[in-house]
Amino acid sequence: MAQYRLTVTTGSFPTAETFHSIFLTLVGSRGESNKYPLENEGKGFLPGTVNHYQLSTDEDLGEILLIRLHKERYSFFPEDSWYCTSVSVECPGHRTYTFPCYRWMEAYCTESFRDGTAKKITDDTDVLLELRCSELKCRQEIYRWKDFQPGFPRCININSMKNCDAKYSLVKQAPPRILTKYPNIQIKLKAFSEVQENWKSLQELQRAFSFTHTPISEYVSQHWKEDAFFGYQFLNGAHPSLIQKCNKIPTNFPVTEEMVAASLGKSTSLKDELMKGNIFIVDYKILDGIPGNVIKGSQQYIAAPLCLLFVTPEHQLIPIAIQLSQIPGPKSPIFLPSDSEWDWTLAKIWVRSADFHVHQLHSHALCTHFMGEVFSVSTIRQLPMCHPLYKLLVPHTQNNLQINIQARAVIIGAGGVFDRVVATGGPGLSLLIKRCLETLTYSSLCLPEDIQARGMESLPIYYFRDDGLEIWNALGSFVSSIVNFYYESDYSVQQDTELQAWVAEIFQEGVLGRASSGFPSLLHTCTELKKFLSMVLFTCSARHAAMHNGQIDFFSWLPNGPASMRNPPPITKGTATLGSILETLPEVNSTCALLSVLWVLNREPEDMKPLGAYPEQHFTEEEPQRCIADFQERLAKISSKIEDRNKTLELKYDYLNPKKVENSVSI
Q1: Could you please report the per-residue DSSP string of 585-623?
Q2: Residue 176 has pLDDT above 80, yes or no
Q3: How confident is the model at residue 165 (pLDDT cuts 50, 70, 90)?
Q4: Is residue 526 over pLDDT 70?
């Protein structure tokens, strides 16, 4: 007779428990056990509990290949879900097998789980090959692609979290994060939310803003009109990935030496500063021709400005010329710092409004949420749980599907936030995201290449670059150590058909098979695999944090990033006043609706998992666990370095502090 000691662990979060009957079967190389009841004295499997059992068999089962968990109805108890995190089996001779589960068992079902040792398809025996193939076949039948809009990256075929029944157990890996309203904020804003009038003054706006401000947004409200702060935001604000070095003034932006002489100083010229690499540009040409939304019967407006900036000898980045359209001419004046206070202020507000749209729909939604969803669904469909890359990727994909399903319903879907209060809502949203995807490149998502392509290698005070590269390199080192352990050669990469199917599906469903994107459709070498994995992990963690974490700080003060403009861009100088600006900015109720959403999105989830935190132990071998420990140690050093730097700054940059970066696109 052989004795086996079993340890069964239930997830620690609320609703993870079950009061139904659980049975377990051991499957070994020499046979399998009977279905063994995991009796728990009627207490059920409560959240966070660790239960121990002994199972006896007539014969030694040999190497334990897998376990089966059976969930069956108990008495009159209502149907529920059980989240099992892991099962460990100590065999005769004291060898212990760990079986990572991390899956909901819904209704009454049987699930099979393999030992936690990671295996590529080329490493498996015939018996286990059949299991991994059936696992993927089942997932591919359940987790299907659909088009949300033509020209978008494709998404999961789930319209609502309410539709996530038993078959979508992998989507329900944790309690869903619902985009709900915060009652206290709503109550405070209620006095403003029904007011369909202009803001009467900046002081009146400050009253509503005070309910939702943060230390940084308070700073923004005090400094938003300053040129140096305007320029600073392109480096370290909510959207630091668009600015680029200007080597030549565009032909459609006819800035002359005379226009910028006062900004540059007497001892230099525009030509000289271009040669020195001190001139930068932000170009919103992707917005050109995007139709403005109609909100409550009123036409809204979108500009496609160009903004020229100069790095001063004091290392301040300041705007020196702004044109509010892509077509130069008498009705498209070039605004300058020497213009009247309100002309120049209004021109900068138009730039900030354009930045809001490109940030939200291109850099944030497309490049992190939508692409992250493609990575997530492809991982579920093409990599079995035992695959080393599934184990590497799954912590960086959790909750992405939940938040995107909700966002499509609440934020960008018909009747959502964008339709109600944002100028790029309605038909403009679909056209803009389609246009953005047509220009998206693999290189632009690889931070070192993106920094180099934009000519941003040496610009001082660019903390997004500095911190981002630190994290990119840490991720690259971590990924390399994992790949080196599981892939002994380039040939092993080429022979991994599951890996190749994963990459091919990302190419087909993410960038819609567009070869000009530079996205690979297959991988030939370990080096290519390491780069691709680094891009995926960085996109789902650090890139998302950089684009998400600063929203409430930089966009909650309305003039610093209006979601809509109610009057068209000025075609002459000398017409702007504070009154005309207030008439152009969104009215009171639209402002408050957006503030409510920004505040909800800004809240840190209770189950926040910072970068490098892996509470779910998918890897069970010693070497990958050592790799994880090294990665965590390196991230801790990066955090300390950032925190030390921030102590010396008037305005700290903490969005890429690994402690503040989530593992995945989860909010």
Answers
A1: S--HHHHHHHHHHHHHHHSPPTT--BTT---S----SHH
A2: no
A3: very low
A4: yes
**Mean pLDDT on 336-341:** 98
Q: Residue ranges for the binding site for Ca(2+)?
A: 40, 80
Q: Binding site residues, as ranges?
A: 40, 80, 364, 369, 544, 667
Task: Note whether 507 and 519 are within 8 A (CB).
Answer: yes
Contacting residues for 514 by C-beta, under 8 A, at least 6 apart: 438
Amino acid letter at 347? A
Cα angle 134, 139, 145; round to 5: 140
List, as residue ranges, the binding site for Fe cation.
364, 369, 544, 667
Q: Over the stretch 106-157, which tens digit does the pLDDT of each residue have?
A: 888 999 999 999 999 999 988 899 999 999 999 999 999 999 999 999 999 9
Q: Which residues, in sequence order, are CB contacts of 661 under 8 Å at separation 6+?
A: 471, 541, 542, 545, 610, 611, 655
Domain ranges of the chain: 2-115
Tell me which of 24-28, 195-199, 292-296, 510-514 is least confident: 195-199
DSSP state of 161: G
Task: Cite the DSSP H helix spans in 255-326.
Answer: 257-264, 270-276
- Superfamily (CATH H level) for 2-115: PLAT/LH2 domain (2.60.60.20)
* 333, amino acid identity: P
Helix then strand then coil, in percent of the chain rounded to 5, is 45, 15, 40
The tokens describing 135, both together, are 């696992």
Query: What is the residue-averaged pLDDT of the chain?
Result: 93
- CA 269/CA 276 separation, integer angstroms: 11
Predicted pLDDT at 164: 55
